[in-house]
Structures are given as C-alpha cells and as structure tokens.
Write a structure and sequence with these properties.
Structural class of chain B: alpha+beta
CATH architecture of the largest domain in chain A: Orthogonal Bundle
Structural class of chain A: alpha+beta
Number of domains of chain A: 2
Largest sheet of chain B: 4 strands, mixed
Shape of chain B: globular
Number of helices of chain A: 11
Shape of chain A: globular
Largest sheet of chain A: 4 strands, mixed
Helix content of chain B: 40-55%
Distance between the termini of chain B: 16 Å
Number of strands of chain A: 10
Oligomer: heterodimer
Largest interface: A-B, 53 and 53 residues
Order of helices and strands of chain B: HHHHHHHEEEEEEEEHHHHHH
CATH topology of the largest domain in chain A: Butyryl-Coa Dehydrogenase, subunit A, domain 1
Helix content of chain A: 40-55%
Chain lengths: 345, 383
C-alpha cells in the first residue's frame, strides 16, 4: 500500500473523530473510550507493526507525515507511543495488551523508579518501561500514576516504590525509550505548529484593524514570516529524527527534540500575539495547541537537555569540522556510510 | 504550507565530489591564517580559482558544450559546502559561477554563451553584480543608471555601489534603466554586460570596518556598449534579476559564514578540556541548528534539481541561516569572555572580533532580512 493511501484516510479519520469538542472533553477528564474504540477499529495502531505480524509495516522514516497528524489534530491519547510499543512487542512475538500504552524511561533511585510529566499518562493502562538494558511490559495502576496537576491536561507523574513487576521482557532499541518518546514529542510539536501557522494566517487575513486586515500590516507580516520559519525548521528537525529511527542511536533524535523544543516559545508567542486577547480564551481553539506545545517542549527533555547530549558527542569527536560531524553522525544514519567515512564513537 | 520542501538525500555521485574538493583546498588552506579563512567568500585568490577550474569544479551545472560539467545542483551543493566550511578563498570566481553563468545560460544569446561561459569555466574571467546604487538598495526598482540606445549599441551613464570586487573583476552584469515610459518602475529595466576596463568606467574600492577592500563604487561616464552587451530582452531586466537572485539565495552559502570560527572555538574547548554542562549545551545547540539548516538547504537544492525556482523557500532558509551565522560570533564572544582564565589563541580572538564586526553583512548581502520576510509573507498570501 502506498503512503498516500494511508495518509489521506488517516487525515480524514482524525478530522472526523478528533474534533475540538472531543479534545476538550478528554482534557476535562471525560472518558476517551469512544475515541479509542474508533482508533482501534481503524487499524492504524498497527501502522509500524511488521507486515509479517499483520501490521502495515511502515518504517518510522516513512511514517513522519502520519505521526505529524497526531500533533496536527492534538489527538488526546498516546497513539504514537502505542504504535511504537505495539511494533516492539510484535517484533518480539509478544501480544500487545488492549488500551493505550506509554513509553517510559524512569529514573531509578534507591526509593523507587519515577518519571515526571508524562504526556497523556493518566489515560494509559500499560507501559513499556526501559530499565537501561531491557524493556519491561508493566501494568499501570492507580498507585503508580498521579496527575501532574496541569490545568486541562492528562499528563501524569509515574512512580513505583519497588521495581515494577513485568508481565513480559523484550529487547531494548538502540536509542532507548526516553529518546523514542522524545521523538514522538518532536513530531507532535511539528504537527501542531503547522496547524498553529494555519490558524494565525487565517486570522491575520480576517481580522480588520486600522481599516484593513492586520495581515496587511508589515509588522504582522514580519512576525508571521518568523513563525513560518520556525514551523518549517521544526518540521525538518522532526522528520530527520524519524529518518534515523530508534534503532540507530540517539543523536538525530536529540537534534530533533532540541530544535523543536527550542522553537516552541517563539511559535506560541507569535501565534498569540497575532490572535490578541481572543487567543487566550478557553473558547478559542488556539489554546488546545499552545498549551500542549509548552507541555511537550519540557516533556521527555527540553532543548537544553538534548543539546548537552549533542554537544558531548561533538566535543568528543576528532572530526575537524562541524559539517563533517553533522554529516557523519546526524544526517546519515549510522551504518549507511561509505567505507572510510565511519567514525568510531 | 511549503509542502514541497522536504528532506532529500544527496546522491552518491554528488557526494563523490567531496574528496576531490577536500584534497584541492588542503594546500591553499595551509597558506592562510584563521582570520583569512574567516573571509571565506570574500577571499579573492585567482590562483586558487584557476586550480578549481582545472579540477572541473567551476561551472558544474553548466552544459558540457559550454565548458561546464553537465551536473546538477546537488553536485554544486557538495562543492560549495566543502569550500565554505573551511573558508576557502572563492571570491574571484564566486559570482560568475553562482549567478552570472546561470543567468547567461538562461537569458543570454548564443554568442554570449559561447564567448563567456567557457572562459568562466576555465577560471579566466570574473564577474560582479551591478544592482545597488546610492538611491537603490532594498528598493531595487529605483535604479537610475541609464542606458540610451545609439545607432550601434548603447551609451551607459550612472553609478553603482557596494559592488563586490568590481575593482578586481573583469565584467559586471548591471541592471539599468532603458525606458521611463511606464509608471511601473519595474518595467523599462534591462541587464547589460559591462567590460570594467572600457573607457569611461571608474572603479573605486571602499574600505570596510575591518580594513578590507571587497566592495566598491563604480562610475559610468558615457560608456559605449555594443548592441550585444544587452542580456536577454530589453525591458525584461527586473524578471531576469529576480531569477538571478533565486540562484543566489538557494545555495548553502547562507549557513556557513561563521563555520571557521565555530570549529576553531570547538578545537579550543577540546584543547583546554572544558566540557561542563553549559558548554556542552551551547556546542550542542549550535550543532543541532547546523544539522537542521543544512537539511533545509539540501531540501531547497532538491527543488532546484527538479527545475523549480524555490524563491520563498530559499528566503526562509536564508533568513534562518543568516540568523544562525550571526549568532555564532555573538555566543562565542560571551562564552570566551565568561572564561577569562582560559588561554585563548590570539588568532581565535582576532577571528571572533572580525566576524562580530562583519556579521551584520550576512543579512544584508543578497537581500536584507526585512525584504526576505516580505517575500515569505507574500508567499503565504499576505500581500
């Protein structure tokens, strides 16, 4: 099946079932069961599952436009996480539990394992948990989940006082699940940012002040140009992360999350500036997007968290130029370099 | 929005040129200081340009029948990237290779193509761009330099300014007024090839704030031009000029202007062994931005490869890229100044100050930041 044959039906499905009203209801704590059932019935949860295991067999690299739609419609369930988890389970010949899944990489301390600010964490019943060596399939219960306390958000803090019991164990992808979740955040930021640009352009064309649409004012035009630049940069960064995938190490994903997270403050600020007071009302849809953008920027590591990792690799590299470092370690997935170009990490 | 601009891979046959360029620049770079390398596409070295030509690296995208290599924009991307990353002195052939030759190929007469293109490809003749005038900067359509038709050709009078290396180049392609009939100032403009050694042409270099002489003012005092000096059609100068600027704005040259400094600073950090969290974050932030901007530039090149003219997309990449280039000296100045106990090589300090002082030019040359943002806004249907 061609990608377009998958993309357009997914777009239509999300446009039909993830309306702003549905997003608001889930944000407010209503059950997402109806929406979840639609997503299960669509078959898209097995997008990344190998064809041999009954899935669509799409690679992460090719899946970028589909995954970005999850951000574009601010789908209020951990659908990307579930897709990756189901693919990992299928590759290990393990059955996937029903319901939404999370990808977790908790801190391990003497007093237990914990991870703060997991987006949509309250809505999942199972998680794949990365202990640094293996993945464990773990059931989440009320003891391990608590709301992170953000307004109209289902983000949760996850905590276990003892090492969580696994119903199954499987191999860990090279990047680890912390990076896999960060990649999904980067992709969601890029998708939501595209929608925010559309909102802002529409509003700038409609809203009249000083006798003409505000989009005719040079000051607003310059701001919207900046917004478009940041949106495009986020899109490129996120698709670079997908191109590298989660089996190739972490640097391309680090770049993806670094750049998308760094773009968030400007994107949200410009969109709100263009929309004026209307944009900060509960009633107007812009807030459904910008609230998430701020949450996703921080979740799974902010721009500085991931910048440190890229910086560490650059400072450890003997390569003379940053161009060659980028070419060899970030742009080209490791393993596809011509002989002699490979750098020993 | 801008859906055609997506990730693209450089094909292996383009990548194969990388080794050739790396080998070629090595010898020249050994003779240059860090500060000189930071001049990059302001560094004029005809010997180096002729070596580039001998290696078949000028006119890469021109057809073989005109002396070119018949290759695509991806090949050119790889070559340009390698040159700019290390600060090779490319100024002599730069404009001819990037803009003048593609312009002549597209709009020039067969006679012009046969005369100029092989000479450009051999690295024998160098071009500059005659756009800006004292009264025409961002408002390019207000040029007043005038060419009047005579029985045998044209007579040129007026003045150009900020013309890069007019004092060392052979020819200028000048945008001038040939008619004032229309109320639309973009009509009645034409492009001419001007021999900078012709009688009546006076070139005076202008010293910049760093003591360099790369740009100049050019006076035309009744310069006699033959009929065949006209490029393309009379009155079509504006359209031709916009197409020419798209060549200028689409390349990777808009992300690498501070690369020499960035890598010298990283070498310094490695040398003194500074790897604290803040340092790693700063290095990583810059490397991440470079990685993504480079991909965006390759994405633009892919559009050129498909025969498109990505004016708006190139403006986006240029605006982002020049902001990145300008941030590098600003951030490194603060970083080094915050560590006064560290020994810093004097040439790193000089290179830093040179780029701090000159970096405003990055978002002036080839169209100011504000003009680019206007183009982007127009591309989004706002004007």
């Amino acid at each position: 099946m061609g990608l377009d044959e998958l993309l357009h039906p997914f777009d239509r499905l999300l446009s039909a079932v993830v309306t702003p009203a549905v997003v608001r209801a889930v944000d407010a704590g209503d059950s997402p069961q109806g929406l979840w059932s639609e997503l299960v019935a669509s078959g898209y949860l097995d997008l990344l599952v190998p064809e041999s295991a009954g899935g669509a067999g799409v690679s992460l690299a090719d899946a970028y436009p589909l995954l970005a739609l999850l951000g574009r419609y601010v789908v209020p369930l951990p659908v990307g996480e579930t897709m990756i988890a189901r693919a990992l389970l299928a590759e290990a010949c393990l059955p996937a539990p029903g319901g939404p899944l999370l990808l977790l990489a908790p801190r391990q301390t003497d007093s237990g394992w914990w991870q703060a600010g997991v987006p949509m964490g309250s809505l999942a019943r199972h998680a794949l948990v990365d202990d640094g060596e293996r993945l464990r399939l773990v059931e989440l219960d009320s003891v391990s989940l608590e709301s992170a306390g953000l307004h109209a958000s289902q983000s949760a803090n996850v905590r276990w006082n003892t090492i969580p019991t696994a119903s199954a164990e499987l191999a860990r992808p090279a990047s680890g699940l912390g990076a896999a979740a960060a990649l999904l955040r980067a992709v969601s930021i890029s998708g939501a940012a595209g929608r925010i640009l559309d909102f802002s352009l529409d509003y700038a064309r409609e809203r009249v002040q000083f006798g003409k649409p505000i989009g005719r004012q040079q000051a607003i035009q310059q701001q919207l140009a900046l917004l478009a630049e940041q949106v495009l940069m986020a899109r490129f960064a996120a698709s670079m992360g997908c191109r590298a995938g989660i089996d190739q190490g972490v640097l391309a994903i680090a770049v993806a999350k670094q750049v998308t997270s760094a773009a968030v403050p400007a994107i949200a600020a410009i969109a709100h500036a263009v929309h004026g007071a209307l944009g900060i009302t509960a009633e107007f849809d812009l807030q459904l997007y910008t609230r998430r953008l701020h949450e996703w920027r921080v979740a799974n590591g902010s721009e500085t968290y991931w910048a440190r990792m890229v910086g560490e690799a650059r400072l450890a590299s003997d390569v003379a130029t940053s161009t060659d470092f980028v070419r060899r370690r970030i742009t080209v997935p490791v393993g596809s370099l011509p002989p002699g170009e490979m750098e020993v990490p | 929005m801008f859906d055609s601009l997506v990730l693209a891979d450089l094909p292996p046959e383009a990548e194969a040129l990388r080794g050739t360029v790396k080998a070629l620049v090595q010898e020249t770079l050994a003779t240059l200081t860090l500060e000189q390398r930071a001049r990059s596409w302001a560094g004029f070295d005809a010997t180096f340009s002729r070596a580039m030509a001998a290696a078949g690296l000028i006119g890469l995208t021109l057809p073989r029948e005109y002396g070119g290599q018949g290759r695509g924009p991806f090949a050119r991307f790889v070559v340009v990237e390698e040159l700019l990353t290390v600060g090779a002195p490319v100024a002599a052939h730069w404009i001819a290779d990037r803009q003048s030759a593609p312009l002549l190929l597209r709009y020039g007469s067969e006679t012009q193509r046969r005369y100029y293109l092989p000479r450009i490809c051999r690295g024998e003749i160098y071009f500059c761009i005659g756009m800006s005038e004292p009264g025409a900067g961002s408002d390019l359509a207000s040029v007043r330099t005038r060419a009047v038709a005579t029985e045998s050709g044209w007579r040129l009078s007026g003045q150009k300014v900020w013309t890069t290396y007019a004092h060392r180049d052979d020819f200028m392609i000048a945008l001038v007024r040939t008619s004032e009939q229309s109320s639309d100032r973009r009509e009645g403009l034409s492009q001419f090839i001007v021999d900078l050694r012709a009688p009546g042409v006076n070139v005076r270099p202008i010293e910049d704030l760093a003591g360099d002489r790369h740009f100049s003012e050019v006076y035309f005092d009744d310069v006699v031009l033959p009929a065949e000096a006209l490029v393309g059609a009379e009155g079509q100068g504006w359209e031709q000029c916009i197409a020419e600027l798209a060549f200028e704005r689409s390349g990777p040259e808009r992300i690498y202007s501070s690369s020499v400094l960035l890598d010298a600073w990283i070498a310094h950090l490695r040398g003194v062994g500074r790897r604290d969290e803040a340092t790693r974050a700063l290095v990583g932030q810059l490397a991440s931005q470079l990685a993504v901007l480079r991909e965006m530039s390759i994405g633009c090149t892919a559009l050129l490869e498909r025969g498109m003219s990505p004016v708006v997309e190139a403006s986006i990449v240029k605006d982002l890229g020049t902001a990145f280039e300008q941030s590098i000296p600003a951030l490194i100045a603060d970083d080094l100044g915050a560590h006064p106990g560290e020994p810093v090589a004097p040439e790193l300090v000089r290179t830093l100050h040179y780029l701090s002082q000159l970096s405003p030019a990055f978002s002036l040359r080839g169209g100011t930041r504000e003009i680019l943002r206007g183009i982007i806004a127009r591309g989004m249907g706002l004007r």
